[in-house]
Amino acid sequence: MKSRRLAAIRTLIAASEIRSQHELAGLLAREGIEATQATLSRDLAELGVLKGPDGYRLPGDLPAVLPPEAALGRALKRELISVDVGGTLVVLKTPIGHGNALAIEIDRARLNGALGTIAGDDTVFLAARSELSARRIAKELRTLAELA
Q1: Do residues 127 and 105 lie in contact, with contact meaning Cβ atoms separated by under 8 Å?
Q2: What is the value of pTM for the model shown?
Q3: Rounded CA gap, 55 and 44, in Å?
Q4: How far is CA 20 from the centre of its chain?
Q5: What is the domain partition of the chain in residue ranges?
Q6: Cα–Cα distance for residue pair 33/45, rounded to 1 Å
Q7: Looking at domain 2-57, does it have CATH number 2.60.40.10?
């Protein structure tokens, strides 16, 4: 049973983005394999599975390197809840625990008119050069996130 479970975990991780043990357990259950969180933790460690911003990876698998704008669009679609503008600040709301990851992608994208970001657990403040830049950046982020 263990060898079947390990093989299924390898196949699932290679074939899709899996972000949590809960998600992995659900996918295994569809395959008729039941596993506790403790068992999955041991299995992932045994397989040498790594967890990165795009979820679990098998050892030796190189993550796809996306251009910064593509990576930002992907992160925004996954993590952005809302965008608001207050003067020269763009305020972005994310699910709890996703603020830092989104701020990193925003900084990497080097948006025109953006001075920098400050991230909390579920909020990102983006400082813009001007009020006009803040409104333009907010619109661009909504479009990339497909919120507009």
Answers
A1: no
A2: 0.58
A3: 12
A4: 12
A5: 2-57, 68-145
A6: 18
A7: no
